[in-house]
Every structure is written in C-alpha cells, then in structure tokens.
Amino acid sequence: MTGQSLPKGYEPAEVDKRWADYWVENKTFSPDPDDPGEPYSIVIPPPNVTGALHMGHALNLTLQDILCRYYRQKGRKVLWIPGTDHAGIATQNVVERALKKEGLSRYDLGREKFIERVWQWKEEYGGRILNQIKRMGASVDWTRERFTMGGALPEAVRKVFVRLYNEGLVYKGDYIINWCTRCHTALADDEVEHASHTDKLYHIRYPLAKGDGYVVVATVRPETMLGDTAVAVHPEDERYAGLVGQYVVLPIVGRKLPIIGDPYVDREFGTGCLKITPAHDMNDYEIGRKHQLEAPQVIDADGRMCDPAPERFVGMSINECREIIVKELEQEGRIEKIEDYEHNVGECYRCKTVIEPHVSTQWFVKTRPLADKARAAVPEATSILPENWVKVYYDWLDNIRDWCVSRQIWWGHRIPAWTCQACGELIVAEQDPTECPKCGAVDLAQEEDVLDTWFSSALWPFSTLGWPEETKDLKTFYPTSVLVTAFDILFFWVARMMMMGIHFMGQVPFKDVYIHALVRDEFGKKMSKSTGNVIDPLDMAAKYGADSLRFTLAAFAAMGRDIKLAEARIEGYRHFANKIWNAARFSLMNLPEQPDPALLDKAESLADKWILHRLEMVKDAVDHALEGYAFNEAAQTLYQFIWRELCDWYLEMAKPVLYGEDEDAKAVTRAVLYTALKETLTLLHPVMPFLTQEIYTHLPGCEDQDIALASYPERRAQCRDEACAARMDLFQGLVSAVRNIRTELGVEPSKKLSMLVRTPEERDAAFIRENAELIRFLARVDRLEAGPDIKGPKASGAAVVAGAEVFVPLEGAVDISAELARLDKEMAKLDKELGGVRNKLSKKGFVEKAPAEVVQKERDREAELVEKQEKLASLRKRLESLAG
User: Fold this and answer.
1) 345: left (phi over 0), alpha (psi -120 to 50) or beta
2) Are the beta carbons of 298 and 309 closer than 8 angstroms?
3) Within the chain, what is the greatest distance between any pair of CA atoms?
C-alpha cells in the first residue's frame, strides 16, 4: 500500500469512531485466562450510572488506557474491566425529579413499581457514559462489563453482609449519624463535604440553680438548646472550680442541667463552657454516653422542631425556631453578645443541604478490625503513589468510626434482614427466609433500608471477577495490578476496598494505587459550572480528536501536580497529530512495497545511524517512564523525538538520498525510515491509539494488522552509537547556527549565504567536509569551507558550536543601516505598548478590583514585552558592531 492511500488531511472524527467500533466488534481486548503471559489487570473506577464524562474522567481513563496498552505490548495478559455504579441517592433523585414533572412521587408508585421505573431509566440512559468511555479509546473488555446491581454482584453483596453479620462485624443499633433532611437518608462520614460558612455565634447566659451567678456558653445553633442535658467544663479549669456537680437552669425551658467535668472541653475556646446536646452533635453524643445523659431529640427527620421541645416550637423550621429563641433570650437579658463566626459546616455531598446530626436506628460495619489490617498492608503489600497520600490514608484509618451502611432510600441493595412479626426474631440470611427459625411464623418483614452505594463498590475488585465463585478470572486476575483514581475517593472507596479485599480474599485488592491530580483551568482554578470555566472533554474530542486530548492530559500528568488545562494546549497537540500525519504521508510515498529490515545492518550514513541510535534511547526512556507512572515524561519524550528529531531532522536529511540516484543508499534509508516510522507509531500507540492505528494499517505489510496487539519494539544493541550521537550534535549545531544568524538578522530565506568554520581539530574539519553537501542543503548555503586555519571577515554573523567557530559573511546579504532603522521603529512601538501595560498595573484600583486572571494576563504580557525588548536591544548592539 502506498502513501497516496493515506488522505491528505487527518480527520479524527471518522478515524476515532471507526477504530473504536472495530476494537469492540473484534473483541480485541478480551483476554482468555489461559492465554500465555503474566496477568495485568485493572478495574475501572465505576462512574455513576447517572454521570456524564468530565475532564477528571478523561484524565483517569487516559492514564489507565496508557498502562493497559503499554503492558499488552510488553507481553502481559491484560484485563481492564469496565462498569458503572448504581449510585443509590443520585439515581433515585434523578428518577424522582422525572416523576415530579408528572405530578407523582415515589410513594404514589410504591416501592416495587418505583424500582421498575428506575431500571427503565437505567436501560434508557445508563449506557451514556459507557459510550463516552468508548469514544475516548479505552481498551476495556466490553464482554466483561459490570454493574453494581447486575449479574452476580447482588449475590456477592448479600454474602459479604451476612458473613460480616455472623462474624459480629455488622450490627444494628441506635447511634448518632449524619442525616440529610432533603434526601431523607443517613450519610457516612466521608459522604459529608465541608464548606466554609459565616454564622452568628451567640453567647448565652445559663443561670446557676443556686445563687445569682451564671455561666456563659457559646453556640451557633441556639435552637438546639431545647435538647440540652448538661453543661460541661474542663475539670482542671480554675475558673469553674467548685461548679462541677452543681446545676444551671436551661433558659426558655426552665429545666435543671448538671454541670459536668470532661477533658474534651477546650479551655481556650470561647468561655470554656460547653452546652451538651447529645442528640444533635456528634461530640456531645459521645460525652452524653460517657456521662449517661439522656438524648432528647428536638429536631425531626424533616429538619423541623418536634416533641419534646416546648409545644409552641413544634413544627417550626430550624431557622424560624432560632429567630424566636434569640428574640426571647434577648428579652430575658440572657444574650451576652453576638458575633460573626466563620467555621466549616457539613453538607450532603449530593444536594449540599446542611447535615443534621440525628440519632436513629441504623446498620453499621464495625471497622476497627478491618481498618487495622488495611493500614498494615501499606506499603508492605500495596504502594500508594505519590507517597504523600500514605499519611492521609493512615490518618483516616487511625480515626475511623464505625461505618453507617444503611440508607433510607429504595434504589440499591436492600439489606438482607427480616424481623419476625410474631416473636421479634431478627433473621439475616443470604436467601429470603420463608419462616421464622425461632417460632415458625411466616409473617416476616424485610428491612426497608438499602445499603450504602460504597458497600457494593468496596467489593468491586473481586466481585467483578466472579466472586463468590472460584472463577478462572478470579484466580488469574486477582489481586489487580494497579488502581488509578482521584484523591477525593481515597476514603470513600480505596480504603474500603482494601478492608474488604483483605478480609474476604486474604489479599490486598491491588499492588499499586496511583492517585492522579486534579484537572484545573488555565489559571489553576477548579472547574465548575457556576464559574463557567468547564472544558468538556467530549467537545474537545469532537473538535480536535480524542488523541489530541489524550496526549495533552498525558503530557501534563506529572505525579502530584495539578494540570492547568487550556483549550489552546489541546489545539497545540492537534497540530502535533497533523505533523505525524504529514510525516507518515511523506514516508509512505517513499517506501517500497516490501521493506527489507535486514538492510538496517548496512546503515552507514550519519542520518540513518543517528535515528536508529535515538530510537533505542527513546525505547529506554518510554519504558522507564511508564514503569514508574511518569506519564508526562513518556509523552514529552515522544513529542520531542517525533517533532524535533524524526520530522525536523531525519526526514529532511533523508530527502537527498530518497530523491537521489544511488539505489543502494536509497534502499538502506527506506529500510531505516520504515523501521523508524513503524516503531515510533508503536511507542506512541498507548497515548494516541486512533491516529497510530490508522497510519499503521497503511504501512507496507501491516495492512491487516492491529497495532493494539503489536509488541513493544525490540531492542537492537548494535544500533546504539554514542559517537554518532556526538557527531550529530556537531552537525545540528552547525546547521542551526546558520539558521539562527539568518533569522536574527532578517536575511531572506531565498538568499544564499557562505559558511566558514574554524575547527579546533582536523578530524572535525574532515567530518564537516564529508557531510558538506548535506550541511549546505539544510543550512541553505552555497559555499562551505572548514579547517583549523579558517578566518572570518569582520562583517560576519558568528557562533560557536562544540568548540568550532562558525562565520557567515554578511556583505551584500544584509543592509545594516536599513535594518537598524527598522529596529529603532519597532523598539519605539514596543516602548509605547510596554508603557501602557505598566501604567495599567500601577493603578491600585485595577490590581485590587480586576479578576485575578485578568491581572495575571497583564503581568504575563509585561514580561513578554520586556523579553522582546531585551532581544531587540541585543540584536541592535550586534548589528552596530558589524557596521563598526
């Protein structure tokens, strides 16, 4: 196949779709457990079934895909499992909103019909994000697609729950939990997001039961005082010596509250007195249990005041109640002062409603025994990269509380527990019971709650491989090789997978955890719809091709460093894709129908030997980078090699041979060009799969081959040649010196120049003379002389290259007077523009009031103009010296 069959322009939209479909149809990425090769496996972090691909997903997918494609090349048996999460709260909310538009609620349908409705929604819309994943080129095995509520996964969830219950690691009890009054469900600690709020801090006087004194407590939630059961002070706080054991009278209510001593109280905060409301504060709840205090709940599940609050407050919203209580306290003279107070407030991670601590009956996993093993496994069995996340992982596990796993919603894994309505027996079983094992009654009521979404996700690495069955997949691909994920689910998911994997499989679920950074906007700000700075990966893939986006993300994916992304950068790598395409078209037009790789051993020209040497260096560099998760180093190595070396130098140096009459030399260069192009495409394939596949199938002999199954290019030790590389450095330096002189002094590209080179040694002169024709061709000079005794005329552009002095005579080539006049005019214009920028930056109002990115843009412009000014001044000085 010849180069004419490769279209003139690269059209990524058509190419991307065709090859994405091809790989799925041909099951290219579906390994057999019995295939040869060491296993390498990854489970995709399952996106919510409600989700749409965002830039974080795009980065995550790109990095995983690079690893999978790279390790396939290295001969590993690679399995990458795709799938989605049922996303209990999020999905139920979506369907409930749809019902609301029909004037219905889930209660109108009833549980069974509502769940049917959710499944209908999932079938209609749930595949959207999977199709988007396909568009990004993810080399997952679609024949093993999983869903956290589909296939055998519900069986795995039940088995895990029942076993944990039988082992005493799951229990049901009353406890204070995070409650969302909008979603009407409990939330685990790590499902609560904290946001900065500025509220009023009320300093309230609680009168002593005896005497005229009082203590002052500070609170941002005066409505909760209706549920106070004590006031606590630090037992060693001298200000309150003698008060422990006495009583205060609760304002508004009139109830007597004991003053207790507890070391939890911070003597330095506020007055050192703490109101204790066990039912409405996590820490107060623990203090209440310790001191055996009652826990009256005065705020209900809807976020409204309830009995046992005084009757006049019952039914009020929290804010209504707060307003009235503050007014009454002020009337009674109980408010000492009110001040603004900035603090972090817990919010529901789904709807952003402020979390209400709430005592209720819930199901919990006893985490300490599981957490200790998960902690000990890092770094002995699992490495977390970058290593700074290890401490965060340890801190979370060290301070972990029992995990509340019950959720008061309908969509999800219903808890497999039943209560006998006759005798009250609690039955927890894998199979639905038909009668009570204690009394034989058949009236059994199943638990209404479902399990936390993260419960089933915690089983993902082994449930997706067929557990609890001892499948071949499970034996072959567990534990998985690496988990690539964002830091924000280190606790939600990673730590819990570690706990469950170790407990149920006896092994960690993955050997490495690579935590990638955030993708921010070009100014380093977090992308958000409200800010209007979101860059949609699907839009970028449609506009520039998926490969351009993938390469951009990889090129900036330095370990531990957030990515500042701008559309201009993606566009820049689209130009890179065009460069590769055009280089391939040129190469294909000059390749024979049947290249002969054996001719590589006959390579003797500087260009051929050098590109083969550099190819070996690139193989080493890419190998080393990807083994160490240095995605950016791999991408940048390939970029520099392809653009700066293969295209800019080798192809240009090869042209005289390819267009020449020496058929033997031409055959060797063609063999080298074929090898360089084919192996470069293979090295680039993990990062840019679509482009490389398209070009690869146009290579002679590769028309029916899939580059996705090609091996990593073999090493050729005989092609390593450091001496050749050193000679090439001199060659490039000489050509670049002339090009730079021409550019700096404004010499027309069409104007032929002479080149004189004074070399420190005769062997350098001999090398230059040997390659004189090629140097003249690339430097566009008519005459070239080299030797230790060369002298350059005074009016010459000059440079030093590896100890050799390069002179370019300028007489007749440059009108120095006219050039000086032009420079003066350009510098005057530059001075005026720079003055305007500096004037703007000197204005205090602009710097303080303009958006930070606007100010930064002006500062960047100032630096750019100063740099240009310095370059022009340097050039003027140089021209003046030539005019001498």
Assistant:
1) beta
2) yes
3) 115
Amino acid of residue 741: I
DSSP assignment letter at 118: H
Structure tokens at 596: 């002969």
Q: In 3-state terms, what secondary structure has residue 764?
A: helix
Cβ neighbour number for residue 333 with a 10 Å cutoff: 9
Q: Where are the beta strands (DSSP E) in 89-236?
A: 146-147, 170-180, 185-187, 192-207, 214-219, 230-233
Of 85, 82, 78, 76, the C-alpha closest to 60 is: 82
Q: How far is CA 698 from CA 331, 560, 588, 713, 714, in A?
A: 87, 39, 8, 18, 21
Query: Nearest to residue 681, comparing CAs of 667, 696, 668, 671?
Result: 696
Asked if 265 and 291 count as a contact pair (C-beta separation under 8 A), the reply is no
User: What is the per-residue pLDDT for 139?
Assistant: 98
Rounded alpha-carbon distances, angstroms, from residue 558 to 44, 339, 516, 518, 685: 21, 45, 9, 11, 20
What is the rounded CA–CA span in Å between residue 861 and residue 841?
Answer: 11
User: How many other C-beta atoms can be found within 10 angstroms of the C-beta atom of residue 331?
Assistant: 9
**Distances from the Cα of 267 to the Cαs of 232, 264, 288, 350, in angstroms?**
11, 9, 19, 36
**174 CB contacts (<8 Å, ≥6 apart)?**
359, 360, 361, 362
Q: Which residues contact 224 (CB under 8 A, 6 or more apart)?
A: 275, 277, 280, 281, 298, 299
User: Containing H/E element for 163?
Assistant: helix 153-166
Tell me the C-alpha distance between 362 and 360, whole Å: 6
816-842 helix and 852-883 helix, angle to the nearest 10 degrees: 160
Cα separation, 205 vs 187, whole angstroms: 34
CA distance 827 to 835: 12
Euclidean distance between CA atoms 716 and 618, whole angstroms: 12
Rounded Cα distance, 358 and 360, in Å? 6
- Residue 711: exposed, middle, or buried by beta-carbon count in 10 A (0-12, 13-18, 19+)? exposed
Q: How far apart are CA 398 and CA 378, in angstroms?
A: 13
Sorted by sequence, the CB contacts under 8 Å of residue 111 that are 6+ apart come out as 410
Report the distance separating Cα 75 and Cα 478, nearest Å: 18
DSSP three-state, residue 526? strand
Residue 140 and residue 61: Cα distance in Å, rounded?
10
Evaluate whether 84 touches 130 at the Cβ level (below 8 Å).
yes
For residue 633, count CB atoms less than 10 angstroms from its CB and return exposed for 0-12, middle for 13-18, buried for 19 or more.
buried
- Residue 428 CB contacts under 8 Å (≥ 6 apart), including other chains: 161, 162, 165, 166, 170, 416, 417, 418
First to last CA, the chain: 60
Mean pLDDT split into 10-residue runs, the chain, 884 residues: 69 96 96 96 94 92 98 98 93 92 94 96 91 95 96 97 98 91 84 90 95 93 97 93 94 96 89 94 92 95 94 96 96 95 89 91 95 97 96 93 91 98 97 96 96 96 97 98 90 92 98 94 86 92 97 95 94 97 96 88 95 98 97 98 98 96 95 97 98 96 93 96 95 93 82 89 93 94 92 80 86 74 83 91 85 86 87 76 68
Beta bridge partners of 758: 787, 805
Find the length of the chain.
884
Residue type for position 794: K
828: which 2 tokens?
């005057």
| Whole-number Å distance between alpha carbons of 766 and 788 | 11
**Single pTM value for the model:** 0.85
What per-residue confidence (pLDDT) applies to 4?
A: 45
The candidate with the shortest Cα–Cα distance to 577, out of 8, 2, 10, 4, is: 10
